[in-house]
Design brief:
The chain is of the alpha/beta class. It has five helices and seven strands, in the order βαβαβαββββαα. Helix 4 packs across helix 5. It is globular.
Amino acid sequence: MSKVVLASSNPGKLKEFQQLLAGAGLDVRPQSEFQVTDADETGLSFVENAIIKARNACEATGLPALADDSGIEVDALNGAPGIYSARFSGAGASNESNNQKLLQELQNTPEAERTARYQCVLVYMRHATDPTPIICQGSWEGRILTAPAGTGGFGYDPLFYVPTHNCAAAELSKEQKARISHRAVALQQLLQALL
């Protein structure tokens, strides 16, 4: 099995990647296992931030790295929180505080205008100076609920309504989410590119 460093400290992402890549011959290890500190996400797009994170993990470990930059874009907020999804509610943001802020921002927004999508960009770099990293992108369309629903998933999942399944992302089983999420779509592209 090929060892790959996941350029993230997010336990939810790590678990999801390990589940989705288990059958692909990739041994996904968190960067914390190698004492790699999080890179400063100074990019202005999901692609830039994912490249920054992957390069940082490659430089620190000498191993191939996989980085994910993802977030939620809400049309009524002109695409916000976007690349700032993890820190939408400010310093020390948590899933709960981010969800509360999103609900506040959309307080008077009619249901028809609460459209949103999760975006995921995955970058796989063979080494720190890889001139042709593999870049994959997946989207997941939905809308923002007026109150949280479900206890599964992480991030904005309790507020993200999935029309195809008539429920919040947090109400989907892990297996359902692993087939239809933005990350699952991007990962399928990555697996095709790597095989």
